[in-house]
Structure to design on (150 residues):
């Protein structure tokens, strides 16, 4: 649960606050949209992004398995999308669309080197992905352990 809270907090910070080269991406941070008569939409979006951790907490609190499984599926889909968006283009090469998208992230920090046709994930997404993958693994292991204990 702690990992999910860290993941949720990290993701919220990335959505809300401009942190220079750490999350220098197209679009506005949510904090700037609050003053543009979009407060309800912004808060709603932020709440939707917290749903996985809230569902998991509900499942633990009520001892219901389905919210935990639902959370695992949601985190798993998100992890698969991250692999498709960042890691496959870096390892196997990017198509034209992925290369165009990388142009928007040229001012972000990178941990890994890029090469021609193989754009590296930025550091913000690397940290996000590590937290996300660890979350998926720990939830899956916890569910397996619970099933074996029965």
């Amino acid at each position: 649960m702690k990992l999910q809270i860290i993941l949720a907090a990290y993701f919220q910070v990335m959505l809300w606050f401009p942190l220079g080269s750490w999350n220098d991406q197209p679009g506005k941070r949510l904090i700037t949209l609050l003053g543009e008569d979009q407060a309800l939409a912004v808060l709603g979006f932020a709440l939707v992004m917290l749903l996985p951790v809230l569902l998991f907490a509900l499942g633990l609190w009520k001892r219901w398995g389905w919210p935990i499984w639902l959370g695992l599926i949601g985190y798993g889909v998100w992890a698969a999308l991250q692999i498709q968006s960042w890691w496959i283009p870096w390892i196997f090469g990017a198509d034209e669309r992925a290369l165009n998208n990388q142009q928007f992230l040229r001012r972000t920090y990178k941990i890994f080197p890029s090469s021609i046709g193989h754009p590296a994930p930025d550091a913000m997404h690397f940290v996000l992905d590590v937290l996300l993958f660890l979350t998926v693994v720990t939830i899956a292991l916890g569910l397996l352990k619970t099933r074996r204990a029965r």
Summary: The first helix runs from residue 2 to 16.
